[in-house]
UniProtKB/TrEMBL annotation:
PANTHER family: RE64534P (PTHR31527). It holds the Pfam family DUF1989. It comes from Hortaea werneckii (Black yeast). The lineage of its organism: Eukaryota, Fungi, Dikarya, Ascomycota, Pezizomycotina. This is DUF1989 domain-containing protein. InterPro entries: DUF1989 (IPR018959). Residues 29-189 form the DUF1989 domain.
Length: 218
């Protein structure tokens, strides 16, 4: 089955990629409230695409060959960028003080670097048992790479999350087809969680699918 919204979003992606070779393009749709892990080689580009709008994506990355020790660090990134989210051309950094990703395109420009992933206990304290969480999604997706559980999940880069001035506000910022594109500065393993938080109007009040597009040429 082809969903019209997804078809439109792919057309949007392809339109902006018209100067790229598309032979290696691969698109993986992450179902609402679930996660996905994927590998990217140094120099390759990939995109995180919001298919329906106002959907936050918790994103994390690790340098291959380090047993998940060297990883994307929001603390180091905040240090290098004076607490401001990265603009096009700027880098995200690892806990080994090395650039791991460069932002090469961004149609939203509003993201968050301060909040942790939602986690099982957060929902349990709300009286909700068995609710999916970003920490659970990431640990589940990263299990084949050696992650043992939610306590191994690092603080994420919260893509499309609108929390200006570091104060949590349930405000949508992304529209259908919006995306952020990265260039990998190292061989990396990435994990993305389609945030399951569906309380208080967050994620537009309804969790929806997102897409990962890999194989983009430089």
């Amino acid at each position: 089955m082809v969903f019209p919204e997804f078809s439109n979003s792919l057309s949007h992606v392809e339109y902006h990629q018209r100067d790229h070779q598309r032979s290696a393009l691969k698109t993986h749709v992450i179902p609402a409230a679930h996660g996905y892990a994927f590998q990217v080689k140094k120099g390759e580009h990939f995109r995180v695409v919001d298919l329906y709008g106002e959907q936050v994506v918790d994103f994390a990355a690790w340098v291959q060959g380090t047993d998940l020790r060297e990883k994307l660090s929001m603390a180091y990134t905040r240090f290098h960028l004076d607490g401001v989210t990265p603009a096009v051309g700027e880098y995200l950094w690892t806990n080994n003080d090395e650039p791991i990703l460069q932002v090469v395109d961004d149609t939203v420009k509003v993201h968050d670097m301060t909040f942790m992933s939602c986690f099982p206990k957060m929902y349990e304290k709300e009286g909700i048992k068995g609710h999916r969480s970003c920490a659970g999604n990431i640990s589940e997706a990263m299990a084949p790479y050696g992650m043992n559980g939610v306590l191994d999940v690092t603080d994420p880069f919260n893509i499309f999350q609108n929390t200006p001035n570091y104060s949590l506000k349930a405000l949508g910022s992304s529209k259908p087809g919006d995306y952020i594109e990265f260039k990998a500065m190292k061989d990396i393993i990435c994990a993305a969680s389609c945030c399951p938080y569906d309380l208080r109007g967050f994620n537009g009040g309804k969790v929806t699918d997102v897409a990962i597009v890999t194989g983009l040429s430089t």
